[in-house]
Amino acid sequence: MWRTTALTIVAVTWGIMATDHEASAATKRRGAMIVSPKRNHEVERSHEVVGKLHVPGQPVVLVKPEQGDGTWWIQPTPTLSDRGYFTTEVRFGSSISRRGDKFSLMVIVLQSASDIEYLRDRDSLEEIPDTIWQSEEVPVVLGDDAKKDRGPVAISAVVLKPQADEKVKRVTELIGRVPEELHPIVLVGVDDSSGLWWVQDPVVMGKGGYFKSIVRFGNDATPDGTKFRILVVTPRSGQEASVLKTGMSLPDLPNGIPRSKEIVVQLERLDAKRAEGAE
To answer: Under CATH, which architecture does the 158-273 domain have?
Structure first.
């Protein structure tokens, strides 16, 4: 199972400390705390979170949208520093999130083999086991820059086939390549002012990061010669991937999501040409 947010389990030496973390369901033991942001503070769309460990282990930062189904989304692996402090860049919501949307932050701490096995290959958690050390929940609010993102957009994929300005059939095989740790999603949109993107079928991965996907351009009524845009994106988290489900249409993309260069192709309808020739 692919992961855009890999959990790298590292050993943290804290001297002689007890590692037994059997906790009762009634009492959730606090193995970490969130230093920043503070409770009910506004956060940016992409926001640095600072925390501190109270027990040895690997911290994992989780985010839960208030309006969601209760799922906790796993964030990028934190960077550990002195005295148990750690930082990571957390993403709040998606391209449809707006100012005032509420989220909860939490940190859990992995220590045992069972902890590691429980989170292996996961992007999210529906519930957090009481036996895992955790922090208190910290509620936060998305601020004014909900639509902003930091830094330039990274180029993370390349479309090898079809090529720019190529004539394509209504159903065409796309071939591309990404770094092997990434999972690509193919998008297609009409080259017009609507700006809508349509999420295509899941890709089939091959060796060396190569992938292919069956791409559909328009429908049976789409005129011959219609131009389409093709884009491949690589979500940075399971939360980001959750808004890119097959068949969905999107007016805009998650802010700053890594992607390929956009190419434009032209629909060639052989059935339309045959009909014209028969007249």
So the answer is: Sandwich (2.60)
* pLDDT tens-digit map of 142-175: 986 544 544 446 788 999 999 999 999 999 999 9
Place of tokens 């899941």: 202
**Burial of 217: CB neighbours in 10 Å, binned 0-12, 13-18, 19+:** buried
Domains 32-142 and 158-273 alike in fold = yes
118 with 126: CB under 8 angstroms? no
Domain 32-142: CATH architecture, name and number where available: Sandwich (2.60)
C-alpha 45: how far from chain center: 13
Predicted pLDDT at 118: 76
pLDDT in tens, 61-115: 999 988 878 889 888 889 898 889 999 888 887 656 788 999 999 999 999 888 7
Domain boundaries, the chain: 32-142, 158-273
In three-state form (DSSP H/G/I as H, E/B as E, the rest C), the secondary structure along the chain is CCCCCCCCCCCCCCCCCCCCCCCCCCCCCECEEEEECCCCCEECCEEEEEEEECCCCEEEEEEEECCCCCCEEECCCCEECHHHEEEEEEECCCCCCCCCCEEEEEEEEECCHHHHHHHCCCCEECCCCCCCEECCCEEEEECCCCCCCCCCCCECCEEEECCCCCEECCEEEEEEECCCCCCCEEEEEECCCCCCEEECCCCEECHHHEEEEEEECCCCCCCCCCEEEEEEECCCCHHHHCCCCCCCEECCCCCCCCECCCEEEEECCHHHHHHHHHC
pLDDT tens for each residue of 262-276? 999 999 987 755 555
Q: Would you say 158 and 176 are in contact if contact means Cβ atoms under 8 Å apart?
A: yes
